[in-house]
Amino acid sequence: MSIRPIYLDCHATTPVDEQVLAAMIPYFTEHFGNPSSIGHVYGWEAEAAVKQSREILAAAINATPEEIVFTSGATEANNLAIKGVAEAYFSKGQHIITVATEHSAVLDPCTYLKSLGFDITILPVQPEGIIDLTEFKKAFRPETILVSVMAANNEIGVLQPLAEIGEMCRENNIIFHTDAAQAIGKIPLDVQAMKVDLMSLTAHKVYGPKGIGALYVRRRNPRVQIAAQQHGGGHERGMRSGTLYTPQIVGFGKAVEIALGTQETENQRLTELRQRLWEQLSQLSGVHLNGHPTQRLAGNLNISVEGVDGAALLLGLQPVMAVSSGSACSSTSTAPSHVLTALGHSEKLAYASVRFGIGRFNTAEEIDTVAQQVISTVQSLQSILKI
User: Which among 186, 374, 373 has a CA at the least distance from the CA of 270?
Assistant: First the structure.
């Protein structure tokens, strides 16, 4: 029996927690009803389960259940937020502000809107990946209708100052959207304190199932309107039609519930594992830490190494560990990571990067094994190239 590699790619996806799976299974079989079928017990059971998960998600971000719109994932939630605001507020303005290090699920909808005549400002970031708030405010215009800045970066784990961004947007009557796919269950999120108007969420980054996400849409102070991008039966208050996927929704709620219950202790454990890995890897010649050293997700470590070929590096690591060089959503691209080049890295250095996503089921022993393999592989490659 072959030994599977150590999984350290938790920013790409996570395994479904056994408790989550156990909560989901009855809604595939015994409680299989359609939550929109309100005329019988099967529908009532499904409706009650959806309601409970909606309440869990709302409480997790200090929203109300009515403000949670279920989607197929964060990509759909981002598209619904960005395109939905663009269509609903077209008469007010056609200017949108975002950031160079955003996920493609934000940048691509903005590119699409640009093709329709919208003006898109893509802000640079500072060398450690955080936006310059002074430059951010300078980008505001009377016709600006939306700002989209992610909570936690999927490649370098950097946490943006959401509260400060939200305050600036609110003062200027600009809608604030954040992609919190990597943040839910990992850092405290409060849409009231942070003055967030739209927030995209997903389950599979927090040990829940793939194929389910949500968009928070503010209902008051101020009320935010979005134009539906998918029409049909008028589900989710008309914002996203389609029969609700009850088992996935149940799994989403359970995953977030578990994550919130262990958030503080788990973050401490992950931070210790990250530091353990970095302390060993930092001894390498030509190694760079990508992103802010502390203002980042607890389980994220992203490095670049001078003097090695990126493809050869990943190939040398594959037998021992499952890691990536960037976003899983752009893994088929031959271009270097747009996030790392936005930090000022050369294309060559951006290619020679490794993203470690440390998760719930990783151990200190695994971290040490990974560190030894990385050090051995890098030194071997650098020796070959006489670096």
Answer: 186
Average pLDDT value over all residues in the chain: 94
How large is the average pLDDT for residues 58-83? 98
Mean pLDDT of 127-142: 97
Does residue 137 contact residue 168 with C-beta atoms inside 8 Å?
yes
Catalytic residue list: 329
For 196-235, give the DSSP string: -SEEEEESTTTTS-SS-EEEEE--SSSPP----SS-SS-T
1's CB contacts (< 8 A; 6+ apart) are none
Decide: helix, strand or coil at residue 293: coil
The helix (H) or strand (E) run that includes residue 357 is strand 353-357
SS3 145: strand
Distance CA 183, CA 157 (A): 9
Q: Are 82 and 110 in contact (CB under 8 A)?
A: yes
210: buried, middle or exposed (CB in 10 Å: 19+, 13-18, 0-12)? Answer: middle
Residue 16 structure tokens: 């479904």
For residue 257 the two structure tokens come to 């519930």
For residue 61 the two structure tokens come to 């971000």
Measure Cα distances from 162 to 84, 130, 145 in Å.
21, 11, 17
Q: Which two tokens stand for residue 171?
A: 């003062």
Least confident of 237-246, 259-268, 361-370: 237-246
